[in-house]
Amino acid sequence: MSEFIIAIGLIFFVEGLFLAIFPSRIKSILELIKNTPENKLRILGIVFLIIGFLIIWYIKS
After folding, report:
1. Is the pTM of this model over 0.85?
2. 23-34 and 2-21 are packed helices; what angle lies between their axes, rounded to 10 degrees?
3. CA–CA gap between residue 14 and residue 18 (Å, rounded)
């Protein structure tokens, strides 16, 4: 359970770092995401999910 909390904290850290360093770039990326079709976003989400799973599986094994 502590590894899960550390992972959540790391996500917050990385997102906060990007927001602090590149606020205008984040706004333009969010606008791009807003204009992207839902199907493409869903496919991209699944790809990231699989990559994340494979990274975790590799590290844990």
Report:
1. no
2. 100
3. 6
